[in-house]
Amino acid sequence: MAKMWAGVTAGKTDPTADDFNSSIRFDRRMFRQDITGSIAHATMLSAKGILSEADCSALTEGLTGILEDLEAGTQEIDGSCEDIHMFVEQVLTERIGEVGKKLHTARSRNDQVALDLRMYLRDECDGISGQIRGLLKVLTDLAEENKSSIMPGYTHLQRAQPVSFGHYMMAYASMLLRDLDRIADCRKRMNISPIGCCALAGTTYDTDRHLEAELLGFEGVCPNSMDGVSDRDFAVELLSALSILMMHLSRLSEELILWASWEFRFITLSDAYTTGSSIMPQKRNADMAELVRGKTGRVYGDLMGLLTVLKGLPLAYNKDMQEDKEGVFDACDTVKMSLTVLTPMLQTMQVNAENMLHAAQEGFINATDLADYLVRKGMPFRSAYKISGQLVALCMKEGTVLEHLPLSRYREYSELFEADLYNAIDLKTCMEKRSSEGGTSVASVEKQIAAVRVILEGYSE
Question: What is the pLDDT, as a whole number, of residue 90?
């Protein structure tokens, strides 16, 4: 088959080189964007008198038919074509004849592929954002249900201070809200049309780039034709946002893995999201969470791969840029699958509030509140800190906890201790006292939940 670019060359390449050069095995997924963009291009050419209305009608009808057949599965994509653009143009010409060859007027594959990729990734941004909002809803529901469930908060993976499980969930909700913002911000810069930049220098035809951009839902056009075809920073930016998102999902997955272990038993994951062992019948492995954690490195690799491809490229388009797609497609697919699994995993897990409370009671996580009690009685903080540490050491030696230590033992360390001390170091009191904005008290967590729900409701309006 003669290449559509045959002219000054014979258009014949070695079969191995042909396969090496081809991108249709992965860019075929952009067929909707390619055809939609071509319909808009034909419409613009007709509006400017570059194509007749009859030619525009024939092109539009032909392209619409190809799209319908591809979506219905009655038209197969020919893998021998170099890319999706050549495939569509080839089938169009076969169906409507010579008029099909007019479609490529005033454009190049360079601006065409940049257009397709922007449109495709724009759709991916919308889809992934929708999934993030779904996970946010699950996290806020979990937070609402567990706003009073006491658990140990950790620093250095050591029990530190009492928090609620709801507060813990809202920490991840806060992270995901920023992920939503990053993707929306990325989409904003992505939503600029490169079509009409042509190969690199624009075109001699009297085109209307703004009309074509408007038809395709873009907010504007790339102001420089060389930049429009030769940069992929929008893809890099999306990969960066997705890498940060996966980092958050990985951290959450790590928590789930730990909490589901026999040592913690803070949660029980549904059988639908765990696996067993081939030789150890007692095992319930959190494989899905482990895979989310593992696949995070894959998305990081996609980001580094594209950065490396682009770092030394001179302007304008270079074939190296064909390497932009597989990485960003893989990252989008990985993120979507991770969210598809993680969201119902959280939705169906059982929260073991009693086990969390028991862990909190054993961890001396009210030691800071013990010191604060003495400070409120007039003792300098450093002196109160020392006494609290001595009392913790005493409890550890005698196998008890601060709540159970008799008042008489407390008074051996300071006459400031009185009976009201036990209310001050009660874990519920300790948690509720942390009522500062963003803190772990029930009222504070309720405010956090309400704020996220208002944001989510804004998306549905």
Answer: 96
Which CATH number covers residue 59? Answer: 1.10.275.10
- DSSP letters of 156-200? TTEEEEEEEHHHHHHHHHHHHHHHHHHHHHHHHHH-EE-TT-TTT
Which residue shows structure tokens 């600029």?
192
Domain of residue 279 covers: 110-141+155-351
Q: Is residue 1 part of a domain?
A: no
Pairing of strands 192-193, 220-221: parallel
Burial of 408 (0-12, 13-18, 19+ CB in 10 A): exposed
Both 28 and 128 in a single domain? no
Cα–chain-centroid distance for residue 157? Answer: 26
Set 277, 383, 404, 435: catalytic member? 277
Write the DSSP symbol of residue 99: G
| Whether 174 and 228 share a structural domain | yes
Q: Is position 150 within any domain?
A: no
* Beta strand pairing call for 350-351 and 267-268: antiparallel
pLDDT tens figures, 377-426: 999 999 999 999 999 999 999 999 999 999 999 999 999 999 999 999 99
Angle of helix 233-259 relative to helix 287-310, nearest 10 degrees, comes to 160
Please indicate, yes or no, whether residues 300 and 223 belong to a single structural domain of this protein.
yes
| Same domain, yes or no: 101 and 115 | no
Determine the Cα–Cα distance for residues 40 and 289; give it in Å rounded to an integer. Answer: 43
Dihedral class, residue 153 (left if φ above 0, else alpha if ψ from -120 to 50, else beta): beta
Using an 8 Å Cβ cutoff, are 449 and 170 in contact? yes
* Same domain, yes or no: 166 and 184: yes
Residue 187 near residue 125, CB atoms below 8 Å: yes
Preceding omega of 443 cis (within 30 degrees of 0)? no
Please report the sign of the dihedral spanned by the C-alpha atoms of residue 442, residue 448, residue 451, residue 452. negative
Confidence of residue 9 (pLDDT cuts 50, 70, 90): low
Phi and psi (nearest 5°) for 220? 180, -170
Backbone angles phi, psi at 386, to 5 degrees: -65, -45
Helix (H) or strand (E) holding 323: none
Contact 60/39 with Cβ under 8 angstroms?
yes
* CA–CA dist 371, 336 (Å, integer): 47
Annotated catalytic, 156?
yes
What predicted TM-score, i.e. pTM, was given to this entire model? 0.93
- The reply to whether 385 and 420 lie within a common domain is yes
Is 408 a catalytic site residue? Answer: no
Q: Does residue 457 lie in a domain region?
A: no
pLDDT tens-digit profile of 295-347?
999 999 999 999 999 999 999 999 999 999 999 999 999 999 999 999 999 99
Tell me whether residue 33 is in a domain: yes
